[in-house]
From TrEMBL:
Identification of the protein by name: Kinesin-like protein
Binding site for ATP: 97-104
Nucleus listed as a keyword: no
Record localization: Cytoplasm, Cytoskeleton
Length: 794
């Protein structure tokens, strides 16, 4: 709760004519409260004996002289009130003064310059700016605009204002609930999500206000207006909601009819204005008196609406507007006296928080159900019918979720129905018995598993033997392929040596024109030799490559597929399509970036043209000059650039569509080539495996092997013996660890290769004779043996 008196401020209106010196003075001492002194010189017409006061001194929180601008007024008066509204407190700012003293200019602002904006538009801008910064809270903003004209309330935001007369519009009436809260009927609340929507509502209401010309003011507002901002805020996940409202009040100016001499409708309006201000002053006087029991709020509609703002739950600020000209001295003194009485009123502002009604309804419903259940237990009124299937299923779900919940404080909520409680106990007993039976069956299944372990090991042994046979077939196929690769490499080296010798004999004379074979052989030998040197590096890198098409292939089969694909007739076509596809992708990407840049440039040019056009219109309105008939050169230049960018955008977009079609066609061709290559490899692999199973002596020896004993120890010894025998055979055929370098002469290379090939036993695996190739094969065999050994002992 915040207890404070109503804050009062004074603002002096600039005078039209040069004012008389010494009519007022402002004392702004930092240590003391600022004070305004109004000096009234003696009138000689009253005679020499004149006991009237010559000086009147009034204290304010702050006094703004004639040079104060609208920004200063907002920062010192309205901004603290807006901050308290954002914090959840109610706020009110009202301007009071005689007609023509600057109340409407202070509250609403002037329409000539942007810097003349008043408190209402600046407050709206500040509030929405703060709402955008605070993203952790959900805010709802609603606007209402009330006009009190001749003691009758009207909704300024009613859309029927333009088509109906004032008498035909529904009047806003005041209702009071038992808690003395005021409710207004026929006053609409409009939600505003942005600052622009709120300002549009303000301008709409200002258009519908009652304004007339009087001797004191050319555009005098003839009604009291209350612009209200209703703000609701709630944090996500919180049950409390904060409500706050801000009243920005522009009171109609008081005037002395004897001085102005108005009549007719203006006289009627002046009577109602002065009467409502009189009732406002009565309320202020009653509130300032300590022992006053009755406050006459109901005397007028304005005091009823502003009940919270005057001595209630609100943080209120008053602005006293003064016109300190000689003819208005009496009215200015009356305004200052009114402000001093207002400063005596104390308000008690509280934080407006309440629980979310929807959450409150849910909590009360739950509480009612719990009370009904307790009452049913006490009275003994239980149900007699049996539980339905849906209820039984729901209970079983509740029990399952209760057992799975790891929270030790969780509860099983089934109500007070004894049928449900008994069913829960029966279901829990059933679950416990099923668990015991399952435990016994698990023990018996383990015993059966031990009994069935021997046949399972026999079946596992058969699977391992079939797997070993499959791997031997793969190794044989790879050895044959390596032999073919080696033969190709030797032929390439031999042909390159012959070409170099021929070139040495014919350096002095060029090739004869009728014999182009030499020209063809020389360039083809170099890539062949490079291919021979990089063959094994290429193969070793292929062993680590995994693709989606071959994710289920074995390692040997993958290597065979890579070599098959490399030697296939369509491999060149596939690689060419890959390169073309890559180029088209990069070209499409660059073209897409260019299209985006062009689109952004088109948007910027459109914005510049619109802004240029708006500037010309605004300039013509401000200077009251007609639009020039000649076209604007800058606008024409911008429009020509816009057309060029549009043409460029269409051309690039057409090119991008053509690239898309070409890319899709290339992808389709590559997919067809890959499918064809995979099918041909599968057919070739099946043919090679069939021929090796028929002719391989290793396969025949495996088929004539005797089975091992069925005990686990004998299986392990047998498999270890098989692994050791493979290692011995590998050591028998393993050549020197140093690889034999390739010689430049084909004859010496062939001789060294023939010398390094050892004799193969009948049970050993065939090798190529080349040391590097044989090392690769043996390393591959050892890796396979280690994998099989791990599987056997798992």
């Amino acid at each position: 709760m915040v207890k404070q008196t109503i804050q009062i401020f004074a603002r002096v209106k600039p005078t039209v004519r040069k004012q008389q010196q010494g009519i007022y003075s402002i004392d702004e001492d930092e240590k003391l409260t600022p004070s305004l002194e109004i000096i009234v010189p003696h009138d000689l017409a009253d005679g020499f004996v004149n006991n009237k006061r010559e000086s009147y001194k009034f204290k304010f929180q702050r006094i703004f002289d004639q040079g104060a601008n609208q920004e200063t007024i907002f920062e010192n008066i309205a901004k603290p009130v807006a901050e308290s509204v954002l914090a959840g407190y109610n706020g009110t700012i009202f301007a009071y003064g005689q007609t023509g003293s600057g109340k409407t200019f202070t509250i609403t602002g002037g329409a000539e310059r942007y810097s003349d904006r008043g408190i209402i538009p600046r407050t709206l801008s500040y509030i929405f700016e703060q709402l955008q910064k605070d993203s952790s809270t959900i805010y709802t903003t609603r606007i209402s605009y009330l006009e009190i004209y001749n003691e009758c309330g009207y909704d300024l935001l009613d859309p029927r204002h333009e088509a109906s007369s004032l008498e035909d519009l529904p009047k806003v009436t005041v209702f009071e609930d038992p808690d003395q809260n005021i409710h207004l009927k026929n006053l609409s609340l409009h939600q505003a999500a942005t600052e622009e929507e709120a300002l549009n509502l303000l301008f709409l209401g200002d258009t519908n206000r009652m304004i007339a010309e009087t001797p004191m003011n050319q555009a005098s507002t003839r009604s009291h207006c209350i612009f209200s901002i209703h703000l609701s805020s709630k944090e996500p996940g919180s049950a409390t909601v904060r409500h706050a409202k801000l009243h920005l009040v522009d009171l109609a100016g008081s005037e002395r009819v004897a001085k102005t001499g108005v009549g007719g409708q203006l006289l009627t309006e002046a009577k109602y204005i002065n009467l409502s201000l009189h009732y406002l002053e009565q309320v202020i006087i009653a509130l300032s008196e300590k022992h006053r029991s009755h406050i006459p709020y109901r005397n007028s509609m304005m005091t009823s609406v502003l009940r919270d703002s005057l001595g209630g739950n609100c943080m209120t600020t008053m602005i006293a507007t003064l016109s300190l000209e000689k003819r208005n001295i009496d009215e200015s003194i009356s305004t200052c006296r009114f402000a001093q009485r207002v400063a005596l009123i104390k308000n008690e502002a509280v934080l407006n928080e309440e629980i979310d009604p929807r959450l409150m309804i849910i909590r009360l419903q739950k509480e009612i159900q719990e009370l009904k259940d307790e009452l049913a237990i006490v009275t003994g009124e239980q149900r007699t019918e049996a539980l339905t299937d849906a209820e039984l299923l729901e209970l079983e779900k509740l029990i399952t979720s209760f057992l799975e919940d790891q929270d030790p404080e969780s509860r099983l909520e089934v109500g007070t129905d004894m049928h449900k409680i008994h069913h829960c106990f029966h279901y829990l007993k059933k679950l416990l018995n099923d668990k015991k039976i399952h435990g016994k069956s698990t023990v018996s299944s383990e015993i059966k598993d031990q009994d069935c372990q021997e046949p399972l090991k026999e079946e596992e042994y058969k699977k391992l033997r079939d797997l070993l046979q499959q791997r031997n077939n793969e190794i044989n196929i790879l050895v044959n392929m390596l032999k073919k690769e080696k033969k190709k490499a030797q032929d390439a080296l031999h042909s390159s040596g012959m070409d170099r010798s021929e070139c040495g004999h014919s350096q002095s004379s060029p090739f004869p024109p009728g014999n182009p074979e030499g020209l063809r052989t020389l360039p083809s030998s170099a890539p062949t030799q490079v291919q021979d040197v990089n063959t094994f590096g290429y193969r070793s890198s292929l062993l680590h490559r995994k693709t989606v098409m071959r994710e289920e292939m074995s390692l040997g089969r993958q290597e065979a597929f890579e070599i098959f694909k490399r030697d296939h007739a369509d491999s060149v076509t596939i690689e060419d399509n890959k390169q073309i596809l890559k180029q088209r992708f990069s070209e499409a990407k660059a073209l897409g970036e260019s299209i985006n840049e062009t689109r952004s440039k088109i948007g910027r040019l459109k914005e510049e043209i619109t802004q240029r056009h708006m500037q010309q219109v605004a300039l013509g309105i401000s200077e009251n000059v007609a639009m020039p008939s000649m076209p604007d050169l800058l606008e024409e230049k911008l429009r020509s650039q816009l057309e060029e960018e549009k043409i460029r955008y269409k051309m690039m977009f057409t090119r991008l569509k053509a690239l898309k079609v070409e890319i899709e066609h290339l992808q389709l061709l590559m997919d067809k080539a890959k499918v064809k290559l995979q099918k041909e490899f599968e057919a070739w692999w099946a043919e090679e495996a069939t021929s090796l199973q028929v002719n391989s002596p290793a396969v025949n020896s495996l088929n004539h092997m005797k089975p091992f004993p069925q005990t686990p120890e004998s299986q392990r010894e047998r498999f270890q013996l098989l692994c050791n025998q493979s290692d011995v055979n590998a050591r028998k055929i393993l050549p020197s660890p140093c690889p034999i370098p390739h010689s430049r002469e084909p004859s010496s290379t062939s001789a060294s290769l023939e010398d390094s090939i050892p004799e193969k036993p009948a049970s050993s695996i065939p090798l190529t004779g080349d040391s590097q190739t044989d090392s690769d094969i043996l390393a591959f065999i050892k890796a396979r043996q280690s994998i099989l050994q791990k599987k056997c002992f798992q």
